[in-house]
Amino acid sequence: MELTLLGTGAPEGLPFPDCPCAVCATALGEAARAATALLVDGVLLLDLTPGAALAAARAGHSLGGVRQVLLSHPHDGPAVEVPAGLPQPGRVADGRELATLTGHRVRAVALDAPGSGYEVTGPDGERLLYLPPGGAPAGLGDSNGNGNGFGLGFTGADGGRAAYEMVLADVLGRPDGLARLRAAGAVGPTTDVIAVHIGHGAPPGGELTRRLAAAGARAVPDGTTLVVGAYEDVPDVPRRTLVLGGARSGKSVEAERRLEAFPEVLYVATGGTRNGDAEWADRVSLHRERRPGSWRTAETCDLVPLLADDGPPLLIDCLSLWLTHVMDEVNAWDDAEWAGGGERRLRERVAELADAVRATRRTVVAVSNEVGSGIVPATASGRRYRDELGRLNAAFAAECEHVLLVVAGQALPLRG
After folding, report:
1. Would you say residue 65 has pLDDT above 50?
2. Among 50, 169, 315, 360, which is disulfide-ready with 131 (CB 3.0 to 4.6 Å)?
3. For all residues of the chain together, what is the average pLDDT?
4. What does the DSSP assignment read for 76-90?
5. d(Cα 290, Cα 282) in Å, to the nearest integer?
6. Residue/partner pairs of 271-274 with CB below 8 Å, 24 or more apart
7. Is 80 exceeded by the pLDDT of residue 295?
8. Bridge-partner residues for 106, per DSSP?
9. Mean pLDDT of 208-235
10. What are 178-215's pLDDT values in tens digits?
């Protein structure tokens, strides 16, 4: 089954008309995107958008062979003119299947937002799933059969569950939808996940590629033709990532963003509750409100056993509070204790943590403060903490495939 993306942008396209934002100002050439529309084997058009016939011609195709036009989401604004010779666009009711004379089968997938997703099965059995902007599948079970599952043809040749060969979805706008598909087994390690409906909320340039790769997805330019089921170099999700940044730099948001397309993340909070500290309670509350509902939280500084266990991805926030806890335990703030063995015990704990990061099989994203570029602390204990945090960050980063520095909300890759 061959798929041509006539557009990959948000319904308004990219750049948005008359929008002065930085992303729209730089959306030129291949970075410009028409509203998302898919041409399947030259016979099925998913979403009719302005200029679809011209876009097909630029990609070396024609809409003359299209036998079915399906809309996935409500279109704002004036009605799109139907090019001569095309059938009138329609919708498939949720849960219903449409069989075409060309041998394609289309099932409508119920969503948690207005519109319909479409599962398309080609004549040879390859399957893709297309989701509209802002939409995620509703009513999914997990891969163990809990819940009602897809119930929409999501089965393999042996009657068991099988992942789609390709998924096209609003990865940036609804990463939780991708997480649901992963939890249900509909997206597997070899599923080619293509980000569509890309608008000016997307980061420009290389950061778009890095952010999508962290979700196991990729973007392609308008006019790209893909073969569903053919081997593609699916982006490898980095297994270990360290996110550094100063106060209020956006480092925690960046770390959470790198795992929001995955279900059952374990959020490891190293700061504790600090009973009686209202400001700290407000900070914790804001962090919790940002997290997906499927994530669990563990408040602990005992990181080594977690890294040694098998399980879902870990998000550790943050290493700087872990260091404070360990320095308390070894009494590193007292000069005599420090000289009498506290320094050695702290270095052993840091080395133990680095070894656990090296050996872990889990996906790990950790957050830490970068404090070495600021004012030199006025006290000896403050300078000691600054120095030891720098050593901890370096030791942890040495074991990570990806290291990011977040400055003013912008993620700068240091490694990977």
Report:
1. yes
2. 169
3. 88
4. PSSPPPPPTTPPPPB
5. 13
6. 271/299, 271/317, 271/318, 271/321, 272/299, 273/299
7. yes
8. 98, 120
9. 88
10. 999 999 999 998 899 999 999 998 988 788 988 899 89
Q: What is the DSSP letter of 34?
A: P
**Looking at the predicted structure, is the pLDDT value of residue 315 above 90?**
yes
pLDDT tens digits, 378-399: 888 889 999 999 999 999 999 9
Tokens of 97: 């299947």
Peptide bond into 318 cis (omega under 30): yes
| pLDDT confidence of residue 223 | 96
The proportion of the chain whose per-residue pLDDT surpasses 70, expressed as a percent, equals: 88
| Phi/psi of residue 89, nearest 5 degrees | -65, 150
Percent with pLDDT over 90 in the chain: 70
**Cβ count near 305 (within 10 Å):** 9
Cα 389 to Cα 393: distance, rounded to the nearest angstrom: 6
Q: What angle do CA 203, 205, 210 make, to 5 degrees?
A: 70
Residue 155 near residue 115, CB atoms below 8 Å: no
Quick one: DSSP state of residue 258? T
Q: How are strands ordered across the β-sheet holding 105-109?
A: 97-99, 105-109, 117-121, 127-130, 166-169, 192-195, 217-218
- Token digits of residue 236: 């490898």
The Cα 111–Cα 258 span in angstroms is 24
- Positions of E strands within 205-333: 217-218, 225-227, 240-245, 266-269, 296-299, 314-317
Query: Residue written as tokens 């809309």?
Result: 71
Element containing residue 344 per DSSP (H, E): helix 343-359
User: With b meaning 16 or more CB within 10 Å and e meaning fewer, what string describes 322-352?
Assistant: bbbebbeebebbeeeebeeebeebbeebbee
Angle, in degrees to the nearest 10, between helices 319-329 and 343-359: 140
- Measure the CA–CA gap between 319 and 268, rounded to whole angstroms: 10
CA distances from 307 to 104, 314, 350 (A): 46, 8, 14
- Residue 37 exposed, middle or buried by CB count within 10 Å (0-12, 13-18, 19+): buried
d(CA 178, CA 327): 40
